[in-house]
Amino acid sequence: MIDTGASLARMRQTAPLVQNITNYVAMNVMANVMLAAGASPAMVHAREEAAEFAAIASALSINIGTASAHWAVAMEEAAKAAVGAGRPWVLDPVAVGATAFRRDLGARLLALSPTILRGNASEILALSGAAAAGKGADAADPVAAAEAAAGALARRHGAVVAVTGPVDFVTDGVRAARVSNGHPTMPLVTALGCSLTGIMAAFAVGQDRFEAAVSALAYFGLAGEVAGASASGPGSFQVAFLDALHAITPDDLGARARMAAA
User: Fold this and answer.
1) Which residues face 190 on adjacent strands?
2) Could you tell me if 90 and 62 are in contact, meaning their C-beta atoms sit under 8 angstroms apart?
3) Low-confidence residues of the chain, pLDDT below 50?
4) Are 33 and 199 in contact (CB under 8 A)?
5) Model pLDDT, residue 4
6) What is the pLDDT of residue 60?
7) pTM of the prediction?
8) CA nearest 96: which of 108, 104, 87?
9) DSSP codes, 3-65
10) What's the Cα-to-Cα distance from 110 to each of 2, 29, 96, 105, 258, rounded to whole Å?
């Protein structure tokens, strides 16, 4: 059994500095989400400093949502620096199957040994080389359809692979779990999924990466449940979600995390 509460407590005690190379849409939301959770975000993406910063940050997250050629180089250099410095890094391959540019970039980043790979089912299928039915950044495949691909990617690249959806699936190629915390309003608030990538990077600092991924998903989903109980729509949900991230205690998470071995 994973002690999700202890995992949250360790993340907050560490208050890790997480470098996030993410998309324009997500930057503000993601920074606020990470601050509310107890981590320290740094939105550093310039090629001139990305690798240097990755070597001093506690962790790195990379999201290819609005990647350009210049950013792509910064992403690769930062990932190499993080690996060289022994820092965990998380890859979020947004809409990786949509264009040749994204497919090529996703493959190059995957070859740089991410600690955690987080995507929806369509993105995980596309990275594995299987046919996927994604629509832009949205999944058109169920989580179950990508579970075998997730396991294969985990074993091939030595990463924890998290397939996110109504019920998340997480595997390191040997262990596997499903996490069912969450709320249906979450997909209606832009950049929450992108923000989850940074939360996963924060949890991965100094912790078992499989347990970190599961704990981060349960924590994020529980915050959605708490927010959904009081929000009247997506606008108030976003505010309530930040408050919930801040208010949830390790004991709350330990008591309310819904996860099971898969």
Assistant:
1) none
2) yes
3) 134-137
4) yes
5) 98
6) 98
7) 0.95
8) 104
9) -HHHHHHHHHHH--EEEEE--TTTHHHHHHHHHHHT-EEE----HHHHHHHHTTSSEEEEE-T
10) 27, 25, 11, 8, 29
